[in-house]
Amino acid sequence: MDLQDLPVAEVKHVGLQAAAILRGRSVHTAGDLLARAPRRYLDLRAADDWQLVNERVTGATVALLGTVVDTRRIGPLRGGGVSLLLRQPDGRGVLRVVFFHAPPGMAARTPLGARIRVIGSLREGRGELELHQPRVLAPDAKFAPIEAVYGGVSTLAPATIARIVQSALERVDEWADPVPVELARAMKLRSSQDSLRTIHRPPSNIAVDQLIALQRGTSWAHQRLAFEELLAASVALERARKHAGHAHPIPFDLSVGPHIAKRLGFELTPSQAEAIDAILRSMTIDQPMRRLLVGDVGSGKTLVAAAASLATLRAGRSVAWLVPTSIVAEQHANTLARALGGEGAPIAVLLGSTPKRARTAARKAIARGQIRLVVGTHALLEEDSLPPDLGLAVIDEQHRFGVAQRMAMVKDRSAHMLVVSATPIPRTLALAQYGDLDVVTMQKGPSSRQPITSRVIEPGDHAFIANTIRRALEANEGRGRVFVVVPRIEADDASAVTIAEADAMLSKHFPRDRIVVLHGQLGADAQREALHAFRSGSHPILLGTSVIEVGLDVPDANLIVILGAEHFGIAQLHQLRGRVGRGGQRAGCVMVPESSEPAARERLDEVAACSDGFALAERDLERRGAGEWFGEEQSGRDRSFCFADPLRDRALVLRAVEAARELLERDPTLAAHPALDRAAKRLLARGQHPTAEDAG
Ligand code: ADP
Ligand code: MG
Hints:
Elements: H1 16-24, H2 30-34, E1 40-43, H3 51-54, E2 61-74, E3 81-87, E4 94-99, H4 106-109, E5 115-124, E6 129-132, E7 135-137, E8 146-149, H5 158-169, H6 181-186, H7 192-200, H8 208-216, H9 220-242, H10 256-264, H11 270-282, E9 290-295, H12 301-314, E10 318-322, H13 326-340, E11 347-350, H14 356-367, E12 373-376, E13 390-395, H15 403-410, E14 416-420, H16 427-433, E15 438-442, E16 453-456, H17 462-478, E17 481-485, H18 499-509, E18 515-518, H19 524-536, E19 541-544, E20 557-563, H20 570-577, E21 588-592, H21 598-609, H22 613-624, H23 626-630, H24 650-666, H25 674-686
Parallel strand pairs: 4-6, 9-14, 9-15, 10-12, 10-13, 11-12, 13-14, 16-21, 17-19, 17-20, 18-19, 20-21
Antiparallel strand pairs: 1-8, 2-3, 2-5, 3-4, 5-6, 5-7
The structure holds adenosine-5'-diphosphate (ADP) and magnesium ion.
């Protein structure tokens, strides 16, 4: 069997429980496991050296042998903090070792006089170098010269994941390479197996710059695996294009736009009118439309998609909207109900959290044609939730999905498809990432909108933050609404502000019953309640994570405070800022970095100085390439890929498309390349699995 299809439960060291947890995070096969690259690498080749301590090399990774000469408890008694002092064997140097949360049994392993080895990074403590939460080994324990460090998965600890991945790696020879041999030879590519080995177990003589490339995900090995993914995707897309069939032509009815705008109480903007015109035109023929709608955040893309939906419903066909979160699903269902004024009713909403019975009932009604408009999250892609006579598939906030989901929406159907981009990507890049789609761009939002005042302030200026929030709440006759956004729910390492920290800070200045918390780990009901409390104004401060980044529309919101702002990508910051000022009122954005590093600050200043998403994207891309624009969280990256990033890997995309066409031309069923055929099908199947993040 191809290792990529080997069920994860059959990998050594994976028990039933671990397998269930992994599947819950979309790791179904040994292939999925190996596609999770390590988070970072510990280079321990020069780490067994006290000189790093004695010469105070902050940031250096060390793996030091020493003797415990002092041990004391720190922090609250029940907090379990321990601080040790470790002495160099020859007595020349000492190092403080701090455990804020001592692992169980630590005290027993580190009594006074014990010899231990500690592995971690040196950092500046109070006047001396310290090691925080290091790993502790027995003095004679072996350690790998270069260690791959993985992220934990739910309750599976990083070390457990590392062990599991390494045992999958033992069988890497069973990975069927989808790249045809002749092509690999022509492109001078090394094998997938070599690439996976290098990524998960770098050779001990690897050069430092190569190791950095591995860490950044830009190594030859990553590029090699990226090509593999892009080739599979190109095959799938090319096949979909060839077998698209005939779509139901939708009569050209330009009245739908103004009709909807009027119901919502707006005038169409010129950009909206143009986009609607272009979209309706491409739906009048029997060739399925494949369109990408690109517009800046707040430019009114929902209304455009609603107009296309109305035209489709009027032509007697059904419509489905795929959206990234349950919050957005419910919001769009409401907007559509208002905008369509009963046409196409009833509207079904399908979420991951929808109870099974309700879901089954909705699916039945959809199958019978009683429901013709459905809005849903990933739940839409599972089993049969799409109307049989689907005329139009809308995919909103495309950046939360990927090419696999896009194809799953119209698989075996000849529906028109409108993909709505969340970020204002420049046209040339849109073409690289979405080569299979025709792009329509909306340049301007409603002119009634005022520019958002953005500023960056010093870390920790809580008084300023509180004052700004207070003033925003009082604005618009006390109808102001304020978002406070943090990068993480909980700290997974010491960096980044958490919900709890921000909550503590806000509670010092505002009564508890003014603040409501919203993040992705809350259940759907709790999220709905939180959002309602915020919209209604009973709790006008919403403290949340980036779940609010996508698509949230609260017209009264007039201030967003972004804490730990340097942890967000530029596109994300711009998205977040787009959540305020939507009702045409004055609005502001305050970005608060956590560190005072100039590099972090510079990026934020740039966002503050420019309110045009297209200009921001263009400038950033020119200077730094796509990576920076989307940030470390890679929110703009196609979720169907583990290694490829079509924006970054534009050249590889072109090569893959070309190769896929040639291969299919000669051998339409890919009989001679079964591994590639499987890879393409696997990608399509992946589109139907929700990932944990977008399961909402
Ligand atoms: P996005 O393009 O980010 O998806 P939305 O479609 O959510 O933006 O629209 C942003 C806001 O602008 C919403 O509050 C919407 O009601 C409002 N809006 C949309 N079209 C118009 C218009 N033509 N005139 C005024 N406001 C509009
Ligand atoms: Mg939107």
